[in-house]
Amino acid sequence: MENILMINSVGEFSSLNNNETLHPLVNIVDLSKADERLNRRSNYGFYAVFLKEIKCGDLHYGCNYYDYEEGTLVFVGPGQVIGVENNGELYQPKGKALVFHPDLLKGTTLGRNIADYSFFSYEVFEALHLSEVERKIIFDCYAKIMYELERGIDKHSRTLIVSNIELLLNYCVRFYDRQFITRENANKGILHKFEELLNEYFKSEKPKEIGLPSVGYCADQLNLSANYFGDLIKKETGKSAQEYIQFKIMDLAKERIFDASKSVSEIAYELGFKYPQHFSRSFKQYVGLTPNEYRNLN
Prior knowledge:
Blueprint: E1 5-7, H1 10-16, E2 26-30, E3 37-38, E4 41-44, E5 47-52, E6 60-61, E7 64-65, E8 72-76, E9 81-83, E10 90-91, E11 96-100, H2 109-113, E12 128-129, H3 132-150, H4 157-182, H5 184-203, H6 206-209, H7 215-221, H8 226-237, H9 241-257, H10 264-271, H11 276-287, H12 291-295
Parallel strand pairs: 1-4
Antiparallel strand pairs: 2-11, 3-10, 4-9, 5-8, 5-11, 6-7, 8-12
Helix pairs in contact: 3-4, 9-10, 10-11
């Protein structure tokens, strides 16, 4: 396997793509200015928002290609690896990339809240597909940032640039909400698979072997990133993925409590609890009664 290309700064990324570095911590990079290049995998030390202008397949995350076409946004956070293994073929990069270093955000509202924009941790098949109107809004945000970069740095530049990045990201939150709705059938299919996954999990020996199912485990089994999976479940059910799993566990617990042949401890271990006391506390918190009190209702 080839070495991963480390790109630590905005200046390095700009230079790599034959763009002038207009600000050491932020830039709008025109990828069409880059020379033709071989595919390779890269690790960025900054945030990047790629706006793809043509249908192409040069980006790939994990083991799968991004599902994107013209007018699609792909988000990458610091430390993430993106790209394709070198297959010996040259390709011409296209589109525009907003790149900004975490240091740009220090001391700002966006800096304090950047972790809330969970799409920077989305992975396979989770890019944001824009309508024509949405695409124009994103271009407008890019244009405002570019205007500030080209006019030169003054005491207002950082505030205005960060404000426009925050505006762009807030629009992306809205557009992802729209995408969750417009892809409702696909999302319901994932919700159905999630329910089936939990059913099969608790019919197997996995609770005793692994313990309680985690959000990360379920997302991995469904080939989704944990953040995208969590956001999708929240949109579909109103519950977080963790709350949904907890609901499932307690629903099974209430059913199994009435099996008088098993002790509360046995039921706890069957469900994946490491300690029966933990199960009893969780049950009391969720149901309002201890397991034995609930059992005596029968």
